[in-house]
Amino acid sequence: MSGIPVLSLKLIVDGAPNADQAVARELLPILQSWGAFQLVDHGVPQAVMAGAFGAAAQFFRLPVEERMTIRVGKDNRGYVPMHQTHYPGNKPDLKESFNVGRIALTPDDPDVKAGKPLHGVNRWPALDGFRGPVEAYFNAVTALGDRLLGPLAICLDMPPEALRARYGRPVAFMRLFHYPPDSNVGEKEFGAAEHKDYGFLTILAQDANGGLEVRSPENELVSVPPRTDAFVINVGDMLSEITGGRFCSPLHRVVNRSGVARYSIPYFFDPDFDATFDTMPDVSAGQYLLNKFDKFYKYRQQQAAAAS
Q1: CA-to-CA distance for 72 and 52, rounded, in angstroms?
Q2: Average pLDDT over residues 167-192
């Protein structure tokens, strides 16, 4: 069986004529079968990617007591301790993260002042040399997400400007993940148990240690080889639902077999909170995400219980 598909974005990065249409022709059958692929020639500098991984390792070397001073809030920003995601039939995931939301949001932003869900100001540790590389990476991957919207819109039979209109103020989150090397697969303990992503599109960078496995169209778990020059892109449940299941939201999991700490950086590129789609008219993109967060994130359930 062949491995996960590989797609090049070179035509778009180079500004070639009709690049969106050419990439869309290759992308559509991938979305309809695997729902996941490795993306190369994406335009994000290698140094920017390396800087983000260096920052992640730096953050998780801090004492846990210090990390807890910026514990995640209702706006989904800050430190998320171990065991906060739990999928039925498995032990809670053996991972922790530092969550970053859209960087442009400030205390004076109208949505922040109004307390709009998932809108807030990022929490930063008192850690020299951390914020700069993280923000540089966030901005670079946001630009990559925008480059993907053109061919993705064509695959959705939408004008690119119609999809981009739903990304004026995207609900974009990035998570710096740390997976310790001591999961126990035999007892259903994974770095991340088998699951589907919740949103529209995920843009993932994984370190050289690997560990990501994706369900193939033949329903086999396939290892995704780590490539420092590639991102792993996958469809989430929201996008799959918008297409009536035409695009596959693939099951995937993480098993850290490397014997050392593993780091990965998923970036979740979701539409504006209030964006709606004709094929999913009864719920906005933001509310769709909140429903998923409330179902699977232990810290959301704890916050809700404390507020009641």
Answers
A1: 20
A2: 91
Q: Is the pTM of this model over 0.85?
A: yes
Q: What is the pLDDT of residues 145-175, one digit of tens each?
A: 999 999 999 999 999 999 999 999 999 999 9
- Could you give the domains of the chain? 6-307 (2.60.120.330)
User: What letter does residue 280 receive in the DSSP assignment?
Assistant: B
170: β partners: 272
Question: Where do the DSSP E strands lie in the chain?
Answer: 6-8, 36-40, 78-80, 96-100, 170-179, 192-195, 201-206, 212-215, 221-223, 231-235, 252-254, 262-272
Residues 6+ apart with CB under 8 A from 201: 145, 148, 152, 233, 234, 235, 236, 239, 268, 269, 270
DSSP bridge pairs for 280 = 277
- How many Å apart are CA 224 and CA 255, to the nearest integer? 11
Whether the CB-CB separation of 153 and 160 falls below 8 Å is answered with yes
**pLDDT (tens digit per residue) in 51-103:** 999 999 999 999 999 999 999 998 999 999 999 888 999 999 999 999 999 99
